[in-house]
């Protein structure tokens, strides 16, 4: 759990500046009006952020003129300070870090248990463990993300928020707290299953090629980047649909309208194909690959490094009393 927590923080520190620059470039090209939503990614999770007002003091509306990604990095650091590259990060980490800890810890425990029970099919254990672990973490976090968006968009007190949630549950049932979970699972569960299966395969293959039993930092980094890239390409259409539905839901909440998004995942897909052609389902291919591959590589290599460190520490702590007794 400590290894996954530290890995999550390291990943967010590396990946967040890329997304902050992307959002600032978007805001420069198409200024965000009040109530407009945008997707903020800290390398661990996608979060919907709502433009609160027309105030230019908001970090995503800071006045500037950038000539590209590198220019944006330089000018943000020079004019606003280095901290500006991590703008908006702390509130999202409150949910992203626990979600990552639940996900990675559940995966490891499930995979170990399944490998013992699956016998000849033990090589498929990462596939099943990855899918189940993602369902668990997404289900736990989904209501909290909905509440966070509502708090941000409507500036409600916690008492008002409690009344709002109670009212929603009474009128629409408990499932209203998991609104939007379906599209999230359609993207994240296949991604997770493919990611872990390919990661374990790539790690074993690279260890054989390197004639080592324990994977090195380089092996885990390369395996994570490769498996993350493959999974992100395959699940890209579901990512496009999930993002569109998240934005629709966030903007309805910001305008205090009914949050019932009637369109199903496949009807949204049909609408995208009708508007932009089949290629519309693969919009943002390069940006997603650039974001996902390093995030997966940094997260898994940090996590594996942490596990190795703590395992050695625990082994030394266990062996020390035995050595003292023998002495």
From TrEMBL:
The keyword S-adenosyl-L-methionine does not apply. The lineage of its organism: Eukaryota, Metazoa, Chordata, Craniata, Vertebrata. It is found in: Mitochondrion inner membrane. GO terms for cellular component: mitochondrial inner membrane. Solcar repeats lie at residues 1-113, 121-205, 215-309. It comes from the Eukaryota. InterPro entries: MCP, MCP_dom_sf, MCP_transmembrane, Mtm1-like. Its main location: mitochondrion. Keywords: Membrane, Mitochondrion, Mitochondrion inner membrane, Repeat, Transmembrane, Transmembrane helix, Transport. It catalyses: glutathione(in) = glutathione(out). It comes from Pagothenia borchgrevinki. It is a multi-pass membrane protein. This is Mitochondrial glutathione transporter SLC25A40. Transmembrane segments: none annotated.
């Amino acid at each position: 759990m400590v290894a996954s927590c530290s890995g999550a923080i390291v990943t967010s520190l590396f990946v967040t500046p890329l997304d902050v620059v992307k959002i600032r470039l978007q805001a420069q090209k198409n200024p965000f009006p009040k109530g407009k939503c945008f997707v903020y990614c800290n390398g661990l999770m996608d979060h919907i952020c709502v433009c609160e007002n027309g105030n230019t003091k908001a970090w995503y509306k800071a006045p500037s003129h950038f000539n590209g990604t590198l220019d944006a990095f330089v000018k943000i650091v020079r004019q606003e300070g280095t901290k500006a590259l991590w703008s908006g990060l702390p509130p999202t980490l409150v949910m992203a870090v626990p979600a990552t800890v639940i996900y990675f810890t559940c995966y490891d425990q499930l995979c170990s248990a399944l490998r013992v029970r699956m016998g000849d099919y033990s090589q498929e254990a990462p596939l099943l463990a990855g899918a189940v672990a993602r369902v668990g973490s997404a289900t736990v976090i989904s209501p909290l993300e909905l509440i966070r968006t509502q708090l941000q968009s409507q500036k409600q007190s916690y008492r008002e928020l409690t009344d709002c949630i109670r009212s929603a549950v009474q009128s629409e049932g408990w499932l209203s707290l998991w609104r939007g979970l379906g599209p999230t699972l359609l993207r994240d569960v296949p991604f997770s299953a493919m990611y872990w299966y390919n990661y374990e395969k790539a790690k074993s293959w690279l260890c054989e090629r390197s004639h080592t039993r324990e994977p090195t930092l380089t092996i885990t980094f390369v395996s994570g980047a490769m498996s993350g890239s493959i999974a992100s390409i395959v699940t890209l259409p579901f990512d496009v649909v999930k993002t569109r539905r998240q934005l629709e839901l966030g903007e309805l909440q910001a305008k205090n309208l009914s949050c019932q998004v009637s369109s199903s995942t496949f009807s949204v897909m049909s609408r995208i194909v009708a508007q932009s052609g089949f290629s519309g389902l693969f919009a943002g291919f390069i940006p997603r690959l650039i974001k996902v591959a390093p995030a997966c590589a940094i997260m898994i290599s940090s996590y594996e490094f942490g596990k190795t460190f703590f395992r050695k520490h625990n082994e030394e702590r266990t062996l020390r009393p035995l050595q003292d007794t023998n002495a």
